[in-house]
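Supplementary Note 3. Input sequence used for the single-chain structure prediction.
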Amino acid sequence: MLTSYVLIPLLSLAPCVLWLWYFYSRSIYKRPSLRVITITFLLGSVATLIAIPLNLLGQAFFLSLFGPGVWTRVGVIFLVVGPVEELCKLLAVALYAYRRREFDEPLDGVVYSASAALGFAAIENVIYLSQSNPLLVLLRGPLSNPGHALFSSFWGLSLSRSKSAPNLVSQRFPIILRGWVIASLLHSVFDALLLASERISIILFYVVIAALLALFFWVRKQIRFHRDTSPHREGTMLLQITNLCENCGTKGIAGEPCVKCQRAVPAPPESSVCPVCASINRGDANFCLRCGANLKLTAAENLDRRPHLIAVATTGEESLACILNRGEILIGRTLNNDFVIEHPSVSKRHAQINTSNGSHIVKDLGSSNGTFINGQRITAATKLEDGCEVRFGRARYVYRQNRS
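The predicted structure, written as discrete structure tokens, is reproduced below.
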């Protein structure tokens, strides 16, 4: 009896810890917080205890409606088990790790979702192994445990993507919802195939293994992509500013010797980029010299009644970028900023916008490529005026005041 009390928790926890180490070790440019991972793992374990009674209630509901049978079990798998378990795991991350400053790069979505999923799987292991042969761990270890982590990676990546979306529920919620739906569907298909392999053919069991391997390699590809593009991998890409040599007219890099006459190439005055044709214009110009477009376009429509920043595409199309709905908005490339700008010219912590007496003040935080208002680089906190262009590195936006 004492052996079972020790052996079952050990066998339940060991494969989950090994898989958790795998996901944790994929992040090489910034190690995720072990404290946040541990708490997320424990919250995932608690989520199991919430999911089990919900699954039983859902199962009882279907049995009362349709009676026992194969299609009832399939209905329970697709409409109860998959959605409920993925939702409980998602909430374990969304209510804690997602809100932490440590959640600051896309790869964290995979790592923290895996932490909650494997915590969930660990408690499931204890329940299954206490009711069955402990050797069942040889099946759950390579299949169910990584399966939980792989399914959850879809909503984990969605949590990361939502941090880069405008800070509105209407913008972020559909992204997370889509990830949860995909994870729930994959989870349900996995369980349904396992059920079918027991009743129809062992061949379906090999289909499950093949599908899980394919999913593993897809997630590994996503991990490699987000690892290689991590904002922690290297510093901000410094932009080379070009200008014409005043002596011979040869185009060169500002601040470096001219390739023809060796005289230093002067820095150009700050310029504006046309939102329609992307031509370079003088910073004080109002209209593009090439296509005649207004360089300070007004919003095509009232995007939001609160103060906000809008992004202007080269076609002139405007889209909401950030609602200035807090006293302080941090701006930068990592996901723990309030306004995330995924552009190589933007620093990890680039600038901030503060609210003071109804006005919005922008301040550069020592960024590599600077913060600009209407083409002029700012060196001190500067008040934003309605319709002004705000540029962080090469990422440009237009500020709109409250229009209520």
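Residues 288-293, 297-304 have pLDDT under 50 and may be disordered. The first strand starts at residue 242 and ends at 244.
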